Amino acid sequence: MSDFPWSAFALNLAWAAAAALAVMLVTFAVAVRVGMHRIVDIAWGVGFTAVAVVTCVASAGEGDPVRRLLVTALTAIWGLRLAVHIARRSRGHGEDPRYEAMLAKAPGNRNAYALRMVYLLQGALVWLVSLPVQAAQYVPDPPSALTWAGAALWAVGLGFEAVGDAQLARFKADPANRGKIMDRGLWSWTRHPNYFGDFCVWWGLFLAACDSPAAAAVSVVSPVVMSLLLTRGSGKRLLEKHMADRPGYTDYQARTSGFFPRPPKRTHSGAGAR
Fold first, then answer.
1. Per-position DSSP letters for 131-187, written without gaps between them
2. Does residue 267 lie in a domain region?
3. Membrane-spanning residues where (predicted)?
4. Half-sphere exposure in the Cβ direction for 260 (13 Å, CA)
5. Is residue 233 situated within a structural domain?
6. pTM
7. Segment of 174-178, 195-199, 254-258, 263-267 carrying the highest mean pLDDT
């Protein structure tokens, strides 16, 4: 294996931070203008795409061209699909209750508080979680079987996210399902197919960096942090807390895996709302 170009990668960390910050600052300006901070959720996927593209340009002449293009494409496909999905889902809705509750307790100027606690924090997370995307593009060796295994795991994750989101959207669009728990398709195998998909995407991108021990060491924090966010942070834990009092959700929890997919247990079907 070739040596990892530490000096070039260190400079890229600054470029990636600037890209993530730029996306969040532009989003903040738009949010203040329209009076709605929920659009920051759209910027999450856009931020990763920006970091991947900036890194692809900056790593020219350092990393293997095939690996650079592969990692950039995988990140952009995931990030832009997520951004478009959230934008469509949010259309016609007001402010997200999460941000309303947070800003109601803001000391001083609400927008300044949102900038610190939402936009800058999310920009920092984009930079941290994107470390495999950055490091992989500086690996000079051509992709090995491990990289292609990572791409396959990424594909599984994207499939869970895209199919799960589409199934839930169709379910909600049917008036006959009003007041019911979504427990069909992938949602009968896991209560969080989109979060499980995210988990697979980021461990897959991490594998793309693992042809270099140095790149793997510097970026392993990313999938670990993402896994914790999905299972114990702002993902699964908060959503299930929000859903806990819905009629039928306890029964849904009893028969459906909380994260990793498995066949549903045979119990009676509950009713509620998701």
1. HHHHHHTT--SPP-HHHHHHHHHHHHHHHHHHHHHHHHHHHHH-GGGTT----SGGG
2. no
3. 6-32, 39-60, 66-84, 113-133, 145-163
4. 1
5. yes
6. 0.91
7. 195-199
